[in-house]
Specification:
The protein is an all-alpha fold. Helices cover 81% and strands 0% of the residues. The protein has 17 helices and no strands.
């Protein structure tokens, strides 16, 4: 198979997978937590577990990578198998709508959904040309955004009209898992590189050995913790009457799903183009500023206009964050190590993704959400300041390369 054919087949099938992933994104970001809040009246621990379910998969992604490496599975075959398990979990919680099963089934489903990310990143690295990787990824990701936006709109209206028929929505999410597995299975891939060890955290040594990788992970920890802490708080802020808003399911879905995803859809191709051409650390700094501004605009407002403005700013920044988060290791990882580097990145994302909602749901018992918003903005500012030395080093290296080229010429 020629590189062009491999790239084309990958894009076509990944576009279908991304569309399904958009439905599952709306499940993880809005509906699973909304059902826990409005139907099961879950407590703070249960809500935090549901909100952090996807992060469990990120935390376990190095284990998933090692598991797949040792079995010599093709990357996308492994993705399909994991997604089928997610489908079965959705069917189980739809058939038995009890909180004792709902919470662990949510965790299994969203764990499977996010554990596959390193395998897909490895596939993008192998199948897409380096100078068009961001563009192709962003184009397919646009369908994920469109799917999330449609699912947020349709699911919100469905729950408003039929609040007791939420198991049907869970079955729809199960169908999205199954369809995503079908598409993933058709993407060409190769077995992951076997490192000869069964230790799931063997790739953590790259944090010690690669200074730029280590510094970028530290920055992402500050920024990501702040962002993930406030992400589930959007549903809490809009849906829990204690905060004074008590919006309907359709309004919540509109403000957390439709508006930000529309902004993501418009800006996604722009960020994909910038990823291929712009200095990564400068790109990350720009995104950080947008995330901080979006959080402050959303959580310091109680008007529809302010909430929409915050959602738009967050959506614009999130569009760039999608591309940067999913592909940045392809700029730094040595050949054959992309899945390992991504596994470390997703593992640390999982750590903060589990801790952040837990801490946020406890802090909101004592502080206002506006105060939490300011705290998150300060963390993001700290992350941005840590990036400045890397931007200077990158510019110095680039000037050195230009001077070398001029001398050679």
């Amino acid at each position: 198979m020629s590189p062009g054919d491999r790239s084309r087949i990958t894009f076509i099938n990944d576009a279908g997978r991304m569309l399904c992933a958009g439905f599952l994104e709306s499940a993880g970001n809005t509906f699973l937590l909304l059902i826990a809040v409005t139907h099961f009246h879950a407590g703070p621990v249960a809500k935090a577990l549901v909100a952090g379910a996807g992060s469990v998969g990120l935390l376990l992604s190095p284990v998933a990578v090692t598991f797949v490496q040792r079995r010599r599975w093709h990357a996308t075959d492994a993705v399909a198998r994991f997604l089928i398990l997610g489908a079965l979990a959705c069917v189980a919680m739809a058939l038995v709508p009890k909180l004792w099963l709902y919470v662990p089934a949510c965790m299994v489903a969203m764990t499977m959904n996010s554990a596959v990310i390193p395998m897909m990143t490895e596939t993008y690295h192998n199948n897409y040309p380096p100078d068009a990787r961001g563009k192709l990824y962003a184009r397919a990701f646009s369908l994920r955004i469109a799917g999330a936006m449609f699912a947020a709109w349709a699911g919100g209206h469905f729950l408003d009209s039929h609040p007791d028929r939420f198991p049907l929505l869970l079955l729809a999410f199960g169908g999205a898992f199954a369809a995503a597995a079908f598409c993933a299975r058709r993407i060409p891939s190769v077995p992951l590189h076997d490192n000869g060890t069964a230790h799931p955290l063997h790739a953590m040594r790259f944090v010690r050995e690669d200074r730029v990788f280590r510094q970028t992970l530290i920055v992402w920890m500050f920024m990501g913790f702040a962002n993930l802490m406030m992400l589930p708080m959007r549903v809490e802020y809009l849906g829990n009457p204690v905060h004074g808003l008590a919006r309907s399911a359709a309004e919540i879905a509109f403000l957390t799903g439709v508006v930000p995803n529309l902004a993501r859809l418009v800006m996604n191709p722009v960020w994909g183009w910038l990823f291929d051409r712009m200095n990564f650390f400068a790109l990350r700094t720009t995104l950080n500023c947008g995330f901080a501004l979006g959080i402050l605009a959303f959580f310091t407002s109680d008007t529809t206009t302010g909430l929409i403005a915050g959602a738009i700013i967050y959506g614009i920044s999130n569009a760039g964050g999608d591309v940067a988060w999913g592909l940045w290791v392809t700029k730094f990882a040595p050949p054959g190590r992309v899945a390992d580097y991504m596994g470390v990145h997703t593992f640390l994302t999982g750590v903060r993704g589990i801790a952040a909602p837990m801490i946020a749901f406890q802090m909101v018992q004592h502080f206002s959400l506006a105060a939490l918003g300011w705290f998150s903005a300060i963390l993001i500012l700290a992350a941005t300041l840590l990036l400045l030395p890397e931007i200077r080093r990158s510019r110095s290296r680039r000037r050195g390369e230009i001077l070398t080229e001029e001398v050679t010429d």
